[in-house]
Amino acid sequence: MAGLSKLLFFFFFFFFLVMTTSITTALPDKPGSGQINSNSVLVALLDSHYTELAELVEKALLLQTLEEAVGQHNITIFAPRNDALERNLDPEFKSFLLQPKNLKSLQSLLMFHILPKRITSPQFSDVFSHRTLSDEHLHFTNGKVNSAEITKPDDLTRPDGVIHGIERLLIPRSVQEDFNRRRSLRSIAAVLPEGAPEVDPRTHRLKKKPSPIPAGAPPVLPIYDAMSPGPSLAPAPAPGPGGPRHHFNGEAQVKDFIHTLLHYGGYNEMADILVNLTSLATEMGRLVSEGYVLTVLAPNDEAMAKLTTDQLSEPGAPEQIVYYHIIPEYQTEESMYNSVRRFGKVRYDSLRFPHKVEAQEADGSVKFGHGDGSAYLFDPDIYTDGRISVQGIDGVLFPEEETPVDKKTAAPTVKKSAKPRRGKLMEVACTMLGSQFPTCQ
């Protein structure tokens, strides 16, 4: 009996262990367990109406990485609407992301939309920044994330995360710079064409070839001599130092930085002026192709909204405003800040000759202009490719006009009544005879 009781005891103990293990396996996984169940936020994303984003996540081979992230902590996903990825995205940029050699850029772009933390809609009213899974930061202010409107807060909520709908795709600076760099490299030809040798007609000898100008060398002519005579719908051709051999595709680089302004957000008005006033974009592209470098001080949308109709109604006024915001030098935030720290005030040339842009240090940043018409460096290094630099400012700059002469302080002019002139003979007679005759008085 003792042996039978022991056998029954071990049998029931083994049966209890088996049932406990099966029940534990059947229970749903909790966040942090390292496994994904049907109630996970990743499953909700793949089955949601954000089909374009879900397709990109699968093409980027990020499912395993996101499963590991969900297994460690809650996540927050900012999902762009399908229109932002189908019709509103630049086709060339989309093809760049889908190329197999640019897989890391696609992964960085998608992980830029995911935070390793649960953030709900009540927190959007605060101003803060948080690191994403791509090790770059998202900035939250006034209910927006990186200037993108959050259209559907708390659209999908799950125990291990939350999905918010946003109006457009968020593009990190590293991906944008990689895209611009590859575009610039494609525009440089590997072999430059050479012309036939020339013979000097006087000596009947071959002419010596001039020393080649390296790519990127400063041009021979000043930039004002290479510019068109004035703003017009079709700029007149101007002599360029590079001739037919353009080492840079200036039009493509100007297009890149305009796209960067649109993707960055908050500079749509400036981009709209550059797109609609085709003479400006053409002029800038031609100057960059001929070897010149440019720094664009781009006012944000809030600053452009303060312009009055009187300031824009005059013929050529938008062109003159933009010309004053273009410096014919390559400057970055670091170079400008070091200059104003060292020299106090720095006056940069502008394409609106002969007006200059004054810069000085203020509040730990760079301040442009003077008085009420000043502007601060607001978004530094929006676009930098070695030829064009775009710096965001929070105001529209105008050149300092000459102070008019005050009419009240001006010296009064005294009018002298002109005496009637007499003939020479009459003057000689009056001198000899004195003032005896009435005509001499």
From TrEMBL:
Signal peptide feature range: 1-26
Subcellular location: Secreted
Region called Disordered, residue ranges: 196-218
Major site of localization recorded for this protein: secreted
GO CC entries: extracellular region
Keywords attached to this entry: Glycoprotein, Proteoglycan, Repeat, Secreted, Signal
FAS1 domain residues: 37-170, 254-397
Keyword Cell membrane: no
Superkingdom per UniProt: Eukaryota
Function: May be a cell surface adhesion protein.
PANTHER family: FASCICLIN-LIKE ARABINOGALACTAN PROTEIN 15, FASCICLIN-LIKE ARABINOGALACTAN PROTEIN 16
Family: Belongs to the fasciclin-like AGP family.
Protein name: Fasciclin-like arabinogalactan protein 15
Organism: Cardamine amara subsp. amara
